[in-house]
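Anyone able to model this chain together with XIL?
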Amino acid sequence: TKTLKQLAKPTGVRVGTAIDTSALASDATYSTAAAAQFDSVTPENVMKWEVVEPERGRFDFTEADKLVAYAKAHKQKVRGHTLVWHSQLPAWLTSGVEDGSIDKKALKKILKQHIATEMGHFKGDIWAWDVVNEAFNEDGTLRDSLWLQQLGPDYIADAFRWAHKADPKAILFYNDYNTEGINAKSDAAYKLIKELRSEGVPVQGFGVQGHLSTDYGLPNDMQANFHRFAKVGLKTAVTEADVRITLPASPAEVQAQDNGYSYMLQSCLLERSCISFTVWGFTDKYSWIPGVFPGEGQANLYDEDYQPKSAYAAVQRDL
Ligand code: XIL
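re: yes, here you go
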């Protein structure tokens, strides 16, 4: 039987996974399966700011470099994740802003430098970058992040311009959650991106994370949502798919999970602009869900013992 990447080949859609680099180093079953099943990888944490610049001016790409080497060895694309985000920032940065030792002008320089240094380091090795992550609230207003507070809404356009300079070949994505379907949040992202494009800002992709829960219904018109971004010139992608369940899982919830994966994958396969379908980890063994959503879990395609679940069969069938 064929692996996911073998099945995906003729579709033109890359099938990817987030990679936990400590599992990659310590768990041979994990690294073998990730290489066999996927032709795109995303570092789950090791390209985030707190990891790559733990102290001001000291960059550390050790872990991320290992991920890139692994991807090269297995002919996988790399999705870079993520450059501008409100979360997982180094303490020196957040405390410096708080105590005023980093003022607005300095912060803008720091952000520009961060993008140039990180993208420069990986130049040519990254297929697509999540340049800006999670900038919107659910109601469509901009998130009141450190970036918005200090730099104003222009930080988004600036980030894309700086990113394009740093690595002109990488596909530059805006990425967010709860934007799979058509709703207030994706409407706002669409409006802003359309505006930015008309001003020549190089936003080139719209990524929807795809963190679903069986406690909620499926997103609304996901294919149509992708299509409107395609019409303004963007690629689209599912970047972090998982479907969590409140435990213990009932048969109906397992079925709903299969449907969640299937719906997101089919929406991508049916929409020509969609270039990749990435899951946020492939085994329940290392899932971020139980740590962040207590009482929920079993969100991935394989169980903790690397047995493929019915969600895996659903993906296999749809590819
Ligand atoms: C998560 C990781 O999976 C965790 O290991 C980490 O502790 C927190 O971040 N949206 C994103 C991802 O864009 O970067 C997040 O990843 C999950 C939600």
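The beta strands are 14-19, 40-43, 77-84, 128-133, 171-176, 205-208, 211-213, 235-246, 274-279, 296-297.
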